[in-house]
Amino acid sequence: MMAYTVQDAVASVKIVEAYCFHAISVFSYSSLFWDAIKNRLHLPSFVAKLAKKFLLPSGAYIPEGLPTIKSSFTPEFAEYLRLQHSCNKFSSGNLYDACKVLEGPYLETLAKLLRIHKQWAVGPFNPVTISGITHHECLEWLDKQSPNSVILVSFGTTTCLSTEQIKEIAIGLEKSQHKFIWVVRDATKEEGQVQIPKGYENRVKEKGIIVKDSQLEILAHTSTGGFMSHCGWNSCMESITMGVPIATWPMQFDQPRNAVFVTDVLKIGVVVKHWDRRDDIIDSTTIKNCVKKLMASTEGDEMRMRAIEFGKKVRESMKNGGDHQMEMDSFIAHITR
């Protein structure tokens, strides 16, 4: 239920409790809250840095110069978020699509800054294992490839790209000389149906294929060694869970901060598009170089190893007795007390 609906129920029925579910990363939420504190108190940068050392828990690294709300959200959506946040006063606690092994220090940050300890990390909500996969054509193609040799390119279900940008992506992938699967949906193109350069699919058929879906199944395949993504939180969690490093290309909303979390905090990604270039067309050479860095460099191999380790920890946390079960049990015990 939306927050403004819940507030009526909580206000009129005294025995009703409401709990806020946050679908964005805890890193994004805690860093946005930290920025709000700095701005409200008008702290000079050097004072803010000192305050950060004393106020933030160990391990809660929040880089300077994160993308602002103004640059990431439309005014209308920012106002919507403000109204939603104003309903927090009716909340008896918070639930997050988060995993403690990834975002534990940022959960501590929120507990400290918000002075609220009724919070639970109940994520991830994506499957951590894949079973009973329908053998899609792209999965049969992946079966023939070497381990960690293929990069998946997918920008979510609502992202719009210009015809010029689609062309640069196509050329960049071809020039990289690396195997790829490119998920292209009609929503990917701003004017409607996507137009891949003429003759492209036939020209790259030995190196790559273009499909419309199956993102999670592709990420779970052993041949997939990289993921070029818009950095929606669901996509980030799917990639991390499957142990796949990310080439970050944020588009809007919380995605720019998720991208920073991937590259600067977890250190399992390379930057394709910096947020300060959000209105620019990213040329094919930049795309080619990022693919090569992620898929065929010592630095890329190190990112992949870190991603694999994080994936193992997330999957372990989902087992009986793991953090996920403990958090769910704690929340259930709380609401049935």
TrEMBL record:
The keyword Glycosyltransferase applies. One of its GO terms (molecular function) is UDP-glucosyltransferase activity. Residues 1-127 form the Glycosyltransferase N-terminal domain. InterPro entries: Glyco_transf_N (IPR058980), UDP_glucos_trans (IPR002213). It comes from Solanum tuberosum (Potato). The gene is LOC102583618. Belongs to the UDP-glycosyltransferase family. The lineage of its organism: Eukaryota, Viridiplantae, Streptophyta, Embryophyta, Tracheophyta. This is Glucosyltransferase. Gene3D superfamilies: Glycogen Phosphorylase B. Keywords: Glycosyltransferase, Transferase. It comes from the Eukaryota. One of its GO terms (biological process) is glycoside biosynthetic process. Pfam families: Glyco_transf_N, UDPGT.
